[in-house]
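Much of what follows relies on a compact textual record of a protein's fold. The record below shows the convention in full:
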Amino acid sequence: MSTKVNLLTFRISKMGILTAEEKQFYKDNGYILIRNPFTAQELEELSTEYDDLFRRKNEAKTESSWVGSDETNRKSDSPYTVKGIHNLQMHHAVFGKLLYHDKLLDALEDVMETKNIVLHHTKAHYKPPEKGASYPMHQDYHYFPYKNDSMVAAFIHLDDASPENGGLCVFPGSHKLGPLEDVGVRDNSHFHYVDQSKFPIEKSTPVMARRGDVVIFSYLLVHGSPANLSARARRMLLVQYADAHDVPTAGERAQPARGLVLRGVNLYRDATVANRHVE
């Protein structure tokens, strides 16, 4: 793992507005680390409901490491695992409330350079101690390409994270390369990832995050994470956003509440009565 930590960190101001320096850092690097924008109560509520959600769901059907296929619930012989649950806002109101978090949306507005922000999807990944699976370096772009590449993710940490417990690692500036070869498709894999010899995780930049910290990053940024071999869990949840007026360039699976306006307006949303059931 690269020892160079190329991070600009800051605490969100009262209005959540980024400085010119912070905006430029994002443009140059494709990501930015925001120090905990949540209140102690907000973070505790998220943490409590996150743990309860994973406790009450069938673990055998929440495997989310990149093994097997969805048809078999990703069953494999690997001793390593990541448990995952999508569409968090459909499980508990606290996750729906998170989508409208003003300080987070303020920062997103500055990063995305739009006042019109919609939801794409949400998910949570739990890497257990000592056996948390790694994720190869990849671009989210290949899962849901959009015309104007407005898509960004907010990666929310519920635990302190570092390479030791499988924390996020990035290649700063890689978003400027645009869409890279999807080696996963070339290898006939069910998953999408870039050439690991060109983007080895050992040369990536680790994001050293604390509980409550948020990393906002472009879906073109090359990122991944090592295995969690530590005695600590790594809990995270992620919200994916897009400009309300950006559009997908390829067919994609339906996501509950995709297109939900979180801030601003969607001027292009069809209001035709006959199409009222169309996502």
